[in-house]
Design brief:
Blueprint: H1 19-23, E1 32-34, H2 35-45, H3 49-53, H4 57-61, E2 66-73, H5 86-99, E3 105-107, E4 113-115, H6 117-125, E5 130-137
Parallel strand pairs: 3-5
Antiparallel strand pairs: 1-2, 2-5, 3-4
């Protein structure tokens, strides 16, 4: 599973496409995205409005005007920042295995997770060493 591709045709359980779908842009390491696109991407990744505002996610995303796409070593990410639900992690593991893809995570400039705790844990459990992330740009 170490060859998962983060951007190719990933659709979550609610049939929501990843950022490529609504930015009309191919996403590559080194690309920059405005905050409103990352905000919209994160919003679409959550099942309900309550899911999205839990932990003030929107406000945390808005702390940065831009995000840069990076390939980050999982060991550099603080993955124990929030409580995790093992059921979600198991579901992500199965989805990632089935699709061979995963949606990128969102990190602040110090590699703390803004959005993607369950995805990072699932990828870590799968033995993935590096993940694609939108990282807050200062």
């Amino acid at each position: 599973m170490k060859n998962l591709k983060p951007f190719k045709q990933f659709v979550n359980e609610n049939n929501i496409g990843i950022i490529n779908t609504y930015t009309n842009k191919n996403v590559n390491v080194g690309d920059y995205f405005e905050e409103h696109l990352i905000y919209s991407y994160s919003q679409r990744m959550h099942h309900t409005y309550d899911d999205f505002i839990d932990g003030d996610l929107g406000a945390r995303i808005e702390e940065y005007d831009k995000y840069v796409v990076k390939n980050i070593k999982i060991s550099e990410i603080e993955i124990d920042e929030f409580q995790i639900d093992e059921t979600f992690i198991d579901q992500y593991i199965e989805a990632f295995k089935k699709r061979g893809t995963y949606p990128p995570i969102i990190l602040d400039s110090e590699y703390r997770i803004i959005d993607g705790t369950h995805r990072v844990n699932a990828l870590n459990d799968l033995g993935v060493e590096y993940v694609i992330a939108f990282v807050g740009y200062i």
